[in-house]
Amino acid sequence: MNENLFTSFTTPVILGLPLVTLIVLFPSLLFPTSNRLVSNRFVTLQQWMLQLVSKQMMSIHNSKGQTWTLMLMSLILFIGSTNLLGLLPHSFTPTTQLSMNLGMAIPLWAGAVITGFRNKTKASLAHFLPQGTPTPLIPMLVIIETISLFIQPMALAVRLTANITAGHLLIHLIGGATLALMSISTTTALITFTILILLTILEFAVAMIQAYVFTLLVSLYLHDNT
Amino acid sequence: MASVVPLKEKKLLEVKLGELPSWILMRDFTPSGIAGAFQRGYYRYYNKYVNVKKGSIAGLSMVLAAYVFLNYCRSYKELKHERLRKYH
């Protein structure tokens, strides 16, 4: 049971070949493109959803920030679809791997911060000191703000990893508990099953929310820096 | 009237059972051939189930069901030990 719990998080390798590449590339199959004005239902639904999300997310940015639209929209689609696909039985979720989330968070955060430093150096440096701080506190506050700046990519990555991993672990554990309880006491098993259903609903929500939060935070870092 | 269609151009359902090995060996196994096969398969599925006037949830669900099945096959080795048996 102990070893079983975490084997579902190991990267899938078949005969030494990285199967994980295929799994990471799979969500792209589910988003077909269409050049038509009136396309099929599937593509129309996706385009409508994408327009909704992009309007809501990119409206706060100026024209320089809006050049990042493609990046942020593909980010939210990728994280959302990968998380939702991970809720299917037996599937592997790439976003449970810290390496992958770091690979997404660090370049995006660094891009936003470096853009800010290159184009608006004074304003970016001014972010380190909130307005209206008493003079004796200034050195300490600059240090604290620097630390909080450098912790941003780590927080982005670890937040996503921890949330998705914890959710999957809880589902495994409670599902196992329901199965084990069925032969002992059916009522308790039913209660546990209800908990499992609620948890699954929560996981669906978390899958989408985490994608949203990740993208929102990157866009906030961008907004600060453009 | 004896118009013999060469083996290479016959479709799979027209190939006789005895000719099957040679038909398989004649297929195009170059990288571009394999890529072409995947592309043809993808568009066959897409145009039959998704790119239609009244597409339903079945087009997407069949893909997800196949994904679940493939993942089950992939992790069968670990799942073998979780069967309800007295002796594993």
From TrEMBL, chain A:
InterPro entries: ATP_synth_F0_asu, ATP_synth_F0_asu_AS, ATP_synth_F0_asu_bact/mt, F0_ATP_A_sf. The keyword Amino-acid biosynthesis does not apply. The chain crosses the membrane at residues 12-31, 67-88, 100-117, 137-158, 170-198, 204-222. The keyword Ion transport applies. SUPFAM superfamilies: F1F0 ATP synthase subunit A. It catalyses: H(+)(in) = H(+)(out). GO terms for cellular component: mitochondrial inner membrane; proton-transporting ATP synthase complex. Keywords: ATP synthesis, CF(0), Hydrogen ion transport, Ion transport, Membrane, Mitochondrion, Mitochondrion inner membrane, Transmembrane, Transmembrane helix, Transport. Signal peptide: none annotated. CDD domains: ATP-synt_Fo_a_6 (cd00310). GO terms for biological process: proton motive force-driven ATP synthesis. It is a multi-pass membrane protein. One of its GO terms (molecular function) is proton transmembrane transporter activity. It is found in: Mitochondrion inner membrane. Component of the ATP synthase complex composed at least of ATP5F1A/subunit alpha, ATP5F1B/subunit beta, ATP5MC1/subunit c (homooctomer), MT-ATP6/subunit a, MT-ATP8/subunit 8, ATP5ME/subunit e, ATP5MF/subunit f, ATP5MG/subunit g, ATP5MK/subunit k, ATP5MJ/subunit j, ATP5F1C/subunit gamma, ATP5F1D/subunit delta, ATP5F1E/subunit epsilon, ATP5PF/subunit F6, ATP5PB/subunit b, ATP5PD/subunit d, ATP5PO/subunit OSCP. Belongs to the ATPase A chain family. NCBIfam families: ATP_synt_6_or_A (TIGR01131). This is ATP synthase subunit a. It comes from Bos taurus (Bovine).
